[in-house]
Amino acid sequence: MAEPVLEVREVSKHFPGTTALDHVSFAVRPGEVHALVGENGAGKSTLIKVLTGVYQPDGGQLRHLGEPVVFRRPIEAQRAGISTIYQEVNLVPLMSIAGNVFLGREPHSKGGLVDWRRIHAEAAELLAGYGIHTDVRRPLASLGVGAQQMVALARAVSTDARVVIMDEPTSSLEPREVETLFEVLNGLHERGIAVVYVSHRMDELYRVCDRVTVLRDGRNVHSGPLADLPRIELVSMMLGREIRDIREHGVTSFGEDHHTEAEPLLRAENLSSKHAIDDVSVAIRPGEVVGLAGLLGSGRSETARAIVGALPLDGGTVWLGGRRVPPGNVAAAVRAGISLLAEDRKTDGIIPSLSVRENIVLAALPRLSPFGLVSRAKQDRVVDVFMKRLRIKASSPDQKVAELSGGNQQKVLLARWLCTQPKVLLLDEPTRGIDVGAKAEVQALIDELAGEGLGVLLISSEMDELIDGADRVIVLRDGAVAGELSGGNVTEEAVLAAIAAAGEDADD
């Protein structure tokens, strides 16, 4: 086996309050496509930033071509032959396509001027190999996202790279472009160029990758040939399904199943959105908790956003109580009785500069402010009710929400949507990043809300939370429904099997 072209040995990286990498070892060899996988927070992004000079490790060693090396800046890693293609295109939109391909390494004429004639000719020839036939003098922004991604790929490969790091490279690509990408990977293999391939799409991993490294909670839990690892074992490693201590009141604070025979309160039918979800249908009855399971990138969050109108739809309809909810209109969805607690409370949730009171009443202001006049008394009554009911710990309603713990911030967001009096509540990772005590309180509240007749869609990466909390579980994979489980069939083994099922027969 060839010596690694790029390697980290026992690397650790710490940030205030957290360890992002904990003695991680990783190596990629010439000509191999090495999968780097793990769920959110596993350490993948931090490891890539160590490899590319964005971060320097706090411990351990980085080796390049067998020699110890320190990349203090990304440009030093690039000069060593390490190129990165990010999920979000990291180029200059207003610059020409050709200018982006040769950015920072423009050829010059004998007179010292940039040789644009050569740049245009070489860029056009290079991009033709990636299925892009267009005037390379056009601004990059004139291309679609998928074509821009292919330009980024062409640029990375054309820089005399020894290692190409691809972060979710197919997330914006059409099927035809994906096939072109796989042809490029074959070419890189033949030229001895190493590829670090980050993706949550199982079919892709098993099609193009030779080896795999699995990260979980900042640690390396497995490295080895991918062909030797059954899909269900890979999924189990990523999700961390190991024996764990059982808390005093069981694994979760969910109670018994919420039995209901009523007609669906919400029906989302055949929802489709380009590059996100494909023909996804979800029904939720009053008092029912429906779980959405799947790996990161499977379309869970996108489904919730589509239902509430935050994701543009190419097809499909949403019905609430027999009435059609206008597509792509969040305000109309909220008025109809659909509310979404987003996954990222920092970016899509709290407004840190505002108080607890202001954050809670934000969504209910139209109801609390008839004729445009804000009633402080009405606000205070609502805030008092929900601070007590959710046991929000704050010095007063006027305390800045940014000063609260993560668990209490999450409760503030729950209060915000509950005071709109929703009929259906979409919860995307409602207990992520909060402590055990707050998690138990949020789980108990979900149980209580369902008991009161609220329809709940629960998205969670924690298997115990889905199994104990949901009456039915819809499993998504690559943006489509892979299966639906209910009653006694909602088990860890059944969910994992549905997640890993695609192509399993092909592995046998």
Automatic annotation (TrEMBL):
Fetch the SUPFAM superfamilies from UniProt: P-loop containing nucleoside triphosphate hydrolases
In the UniProt record, the signal sequence range is none
Family annotation (InterPro entries): AAA+_ATPase, ABC_carbohydrate_import_ATPase, ABC_transporter-like_ATP-bd, ABC_transporter-like_CS, P-loop_NTPase
Q: Name one GO molecular function term.
A: ATP binding
Q: Which UniProt keywords apply?
A: ATP-binding, Nucleotide-binding, Repeat, Transport
Which Pfam family is one of this chain's hits? Answer: ABC_tran
Please report the stretch or stretches of sequence annotated as the ABC transporter domain. 6-242, 260-503
Q: What name goes with this protein?
A: Sugar ABC transporter ATP-binding protein
Q: Which organism is it from?
A: Amycolatopsis samaneae
Lineage of this protein's species? Bacteria, Bacillati, Actinomycetota, Actinomycetes, Pseudonocardiales
